[in-house]
Amino acid sequence: VYFELGVEDFSFKKQKTDSNIKIKMATQTDIKKIENDLYEHFTHQQDFDKKYISQIGSKGINCFLATIDNQIVHYFMLFENALESPLMITPFKSDLAKERDAYLGNAFTVPTARGYWILPMVLSEIFSYLKAKKEVKRTILLVHNDTPSAKEFFEKIGFKIITDAVKQPLLIRIIRAIFFR
Predict the structure, then answer these.
(1) pTM for the complete prediction?
(2) Which of 41, 53, 82, 137 could in theory staple to 101 by disulfide, Cβ–Cβ 3.0 to 4.6 A?
(3) What is the pLDDT of residues 120-130, one digit of tens each?
(4) Which residues contact 126 (CB under 8 A, 6 or more apart)?
């Protein structure tokens, strides 16, 4: 399911949070610590992210981190140009992405830190960053069907589903063109 939200439309209010949780944008110097603190928690689902984690700080590839007691417990990838992001290798209809769109990539929280409301805190930092930059006007987000609670969460905080965002396989498009004109 693909979602969108205008940068200026993000208005989720931060909840009272644990003061031990710190949020920051990662730099290249954080890559080794990300590997040390997080990779042991990864499953095959996060292997894809390793490529982009190694590129943090280059070509508009950003990552926001949450730490507890100096241990990284969460990351959220941000690609400032959706047209040059992993979004373009998904079944997303590429003509729906615009020049001033950012892609909110994958996020991961270690199991022991789940339930601390880290994701809303990180999203607040991401949107504050994007608002200050002023180049990005809209964010696009992909939520996989295997995470239904994530879909509900993003809808609850204002993200809207992009209808008809998924490319149909070529064979289905041909059949529809022939039989359903």
Answers:
(1) 0.88
(2) 82
(3) 999 999 999 99
(4) 64, 76, 78, 104
